[in-house]
Write a structure and sequence with these properties.
By secondary structure, the protein is of the alpha/beta class. It is about 60% helix and about 15% strand. It is elongated.
Length: about 650
């Protein structure tokens, strides 16, 4: 219980704390003032009883009741402070103090007594604990009260003390002033310091706000600059995309414009090559036309490849294939070229090559043929060697093979300063141009990009007039479980078995239609033609062909839209897109619009027949030694 009482008393006399700092300051000042005045009043209650005078003792009895009442009022005001009524407490203290001084002035000589000057203290206290307005009210009330006392003095009133004034009472009268005035000075100084601190904080906040505003403006400018840069970059990106698209459109159009006439040249060459009645000189002339057309097609393909690579649209398509037949095919092709220049060609292997591997067979063949073709082209005398070696691996991974492909020649060689240039597009060195038989200068650039896409790099070691050595290493998955498949050379197709089939040829170019008709009609197909997308849709609705060869670039309604319209009412019809635009995106778009397959121009007869067999389930009839001429009625379906 003693602990609870002590805690209660301690809490009662402890200055309260509020969220408002100014309110907390006034509450502390009021509590100190109330506690100190209550202490002084308790001392004042004792002093008269210590003086050896009956008169003072009689006065002390009256004074005791008065002081006890004032102390009780102080405790009430302290309770109000604890309740948070700081302003009301300050007003109450000012009123109580004013009343005490007013009554004390009457009993201490009126306006001439020692008590009246304490009205100044009351005014100061009111200013500290309430506000300026109440302080002025207290001041006016004090002046009016002083005027009243003066008037009573003038009327002859005598404000005689109830007891004679002696040094002890005089000292006691000034003790409160001695204590309160320094306290007020301290509080004033504290308030002044607090004011200075607030001013400093305000100035600091202003400076911080100014700095923040300046920095904010700088940030806004920086953000604006970044936005301008971003907009410029975005605009540049959009312009680059537009330029790339324009480039792609240009290359696509060039591909279409170049492949379209080649379609007629190579296509009719293939038709003539199927004619066994031609003389040897005629066959030689046709072979020359075919070689020239294929050479031009290879140049076009090189341009398309470099365009795909620069546009990052070239994707490798790994497949499992047998390595030895793959290399044998390359050796056969290059051997024929080397023989035409009286060059020796050697094929060497080192290490146990895997039976099969997983890679993009077409692109790997393209790289090797480019390197070997250049070696033959720029070797006036001597020979060319293809060497394939299985290298030892740092880690024993049985499912991977490290293969090195080397192409070595005894040609004109390349000086060190030019050895990097030959891998750049459209670069042909002057020394090699003199010995060149034509070309775009894209072969090595394409080969380097393809090998990089495979995860490697083509290296070069060369000296002028001593030859060159190109090599690259590939880490390829082993596929030894591939069954050896010997592809026999197919005889010429002369017809098909089964019921007669109908093929619609949709193309706006009459020469392209005629070419396909001349290829298909001798095989026994019923053919229909359409020169636009609208005609193709009408023919499918009316004639219901089994297969449609749909050209994609046609006026009014292109092949994509025509295919989409046909698929709306016929999902069974086989539609093969035919286009001179050989970009991969065209193939993707054709399949997306409903085509079953994509056939690029120039149309190769074997590719077309393989595609027809794959999607039309044809069983071909091949030419035999007994019947070398045109197909008879027995092999054409009725």
């Amino acid at each position: 219980m003693n602990n609870n009482f002590r805690k209660t008393v301690t809490t009662f006399f402890t200055p309260p704390s509020f969220d408002d700092e100014e309110k907390s300051r006034r509450a502390r000042f009021l509590l100190i003032l109330l506690q100190s005045t209550s202490g002084l009043l308790l001392i004042a209650l004792i002093i008269p009883f210590l003086i050896d005078s009956n008169t003072y003792r009689r006065f002390a009895i009256v004074q005791t009741y008065f002081f006890v009442a004032v102390i009780a009022a102080n405790f009430l005001l302290i309770w109000l402070i604890r309740r948070g009524s700081v302003t009301l407490t300050g007003l109450g203290l000012a009123i109580v103090t004013w009343l005490v001084i007013a009554i004390g002035s009457i009993y201490s000589g009126g306006i001439m007594g020692p008590t009246f000057p304490y009205f100044l203290v009351v005014i100061l206290i009111a200013g500290f604990v309430t506000n300026t307005r109440i302080s002025f009210v207290i001041a006016i009330a004090s002046v009016l009260y002083g005027i009243v006392l003066v008037w009573f003095h003038a009327q002859g009133w005598q404000f005689t003390p109830p007891a004679p004034i002696i040094p002890e009472t005089t000292l006691f009268s000034f003790v409160p002033g001695f204590l309160i005035v320094p306290l007020l000075v301290y509080l004033h100084q504290h308030s002044f310091q607090a004011l200075l601190t607030r001013i400093q904080h305000t100035e600091a906040e202003k400076r911080a706000a100014e700095i923040y505003q300046i920095r904010n403006q700088e940030l806004q400018q920086e953000i604006g600059e970044r936005k301008r840069v971003e907009n410029a970059l975005l605009k540049a990106k959009e312009e680059a995309e537009i330029a790339n698209q324009a480039k792609s459109d240009f290359l696509s159009n060039m591909s279409h414009e170049l492949r379209t006439p080649l379609n007629g040249v190579i296509g009719y060459t293939q038709i003539l090559q199927r004619d066994s009645t031609l003389s040897s000189s005629q066959q030689h002339a046709i072979e020359t036309i075919s070689q020239s057309g294929n050479h031009l097609l290879a140049l076009i393909n090189d341009i398309l490849d470099i365009a795909r690579i620069e546009a990052r649209r070239l994707e490798l398509q790994p497949t499992a294939f047998q390595l030895n037949p793959f290399l044998d095919n390359i050796v056969r092709i290059i051997s024929e070229r080397a023989e035409q220049k009286n060059l020796a060609f050697r094929f060497e292997t080192a290490g146990a090559l895997p039976n099969g591997t997983l890679a993009d067979e077409t692109r790997l063949r393209q790289v090797l043929l480019n390197l070997l073709g250049n070696a033959v082209k720029f070797t006036p005398a001597g020979g060319v060697t293809l060497r394939v070696t299985q290298l030892p691996q740092e880690t024993a991974v049985t499912k991977l093979a490290q293969l090195r492909f080397e192409v070595i020649d005894t040609g004109i060689g390349i000086i060190p300063a030019d050895q990097q240039k030959i891998f750049e597009p459209f670069e042909q060195l002057h020394s090699r141009q003199k010995n060149s038989q034509g070309g775009t200068g894209l072969g090595l650039a394409i080969s380097q990009k393809l090998v990089q896409a495979m995860g490697s790099q083509i290296h070069l070691q060369s000296s002028p007039n001593t030859g060159s050595r190109f090599w690259f290493d590939l880490l390829l998955p082993v596929a030894n479980d591939i069954n050896p498949t010997q592809q026999p050379e197919k005889p010429r197709v002369i017809g098909y078995q089964g019921e007669r089939r109908t093929i619609l040829v949709a193309d706006d170019v009459e020469q392209n239609r005629s070419l396909l008709l001349n290829l298909l009609q001798p095989l026994g197909f019923t053919t229909l033609v359409a020169s636009s997308g609208h005609e193709a849709i009408a023919q499918v609705q009316q004639q219901h062909p089994d297969i449609v060869l749909m050209d994609l670039v046609m006026p009014e309604l292109n092949g994509w839209e025509a295919t989409k319209a046909i698929r709306a009412f016929d999902e069974q019809c086989i539609i093969i897109a035919v286009s001179a635009d050989a970009f991969e995106q065209q193939k993707i778009e054709a399949i997306r619009h409903g085509c079953n397959a994509f056939l690029s121009k120039p149309v190769m007869v074997d590719t077309l027949l393989d595609m027809l067999a794959a999607y039309g389930n044809f069983e071909w009839v091949y030419e035999t030694a007994v019947s070398p001429s045109a197909p008879s009625e027995s092999i054409i379906p009725p």
